[in-house]
Design brief:
306 residues; eight-stranded parallel beta sheet; two-stranded antiparallel ribbon; 10 strands; 15% strand; globular; binds zinc ion
Length: 306
Amino acid sequence: MPVFTHAACFAHDTGPGHAESPQRLGAVVTALRDHVPGLEWLEAPRATRGQLLRVHDPILLQTVLEAPDRLVQLDPDTVLSPGSPEAALRAAGAVVAAVDHVMGGLSRTAFCAVRPPGHHATDLHAMGFCLFNNVAVGAAHALERHGLSRVAIVDFDVHHGNGTQAIFAAEARVHYSSAHEMPLFPDTGDPRERGAGNVRNAALRAGTGSHRFREAWREQLLPAVDAFAPQLLLLSAGFDGHRADPMAHIQLEADDYTWITAELGAIAARHADGRMVSVLEGGYDLPALAECSVAHVAALAAGSAR
Ligand SMILES: [Zn+2]
């Protein structure tokens, strides 16, 4: 199975002590190289301006791509550094390339080991560690370049993907499902938020463990994804729901990420010839991030062979 990544993703410098550190990507890459055999490591291309403009305002492109000569705080969480423009272009470009790879029949599944993460970025604003909305750029590419009419974005990061939801809330060709801790940043994702009928949100209380997590997906979200009959699944794969993660209060184990990946793989097999592209989002405890990435990518790779 292909893994798209790029060395430039390490050069997005968030400053000392920032949770969204380059060491996160190092932990993921090292763990996957050591523990998931048979991965094909591919260099992510840059997303083009045209690919980014499908989901982002030109003002955001200008903000992110004008490289500063020092660290600039875009908001209290979100930092722009001299290396950030190239990292952001490669992170979004990885998802575009992975979509092309899977749609071209070269493999059924693919993983994007990238940073900065993306699901909080809106059309106009970088926020919550995110510069460009990588998964949204990939979904728009699947619609416009590959002519798909049903793309599902499934978000199991512990935070709500407010940016992804807002970008596609009126786009009937995209279904968005998310389970996330509430209340928690970014304070969106109430189950009453349904977009144009294409959005499903499940709220998880602090302290939620494996049983309740799986129940929420099984009862509230997976049936909606299945009913949408997606031609392609894109996953916002955040691992900050792990019990060791310092950013949230959900009590998942690595095995829960194996489970959700297999459940989504079954839906992909029914409707999408198995096609799934997964994109790294959050996960801030390095050992847990490494363990969960291995669990998820091994399950994703199990469905990859053509
Ligand atoms: Zn998160």
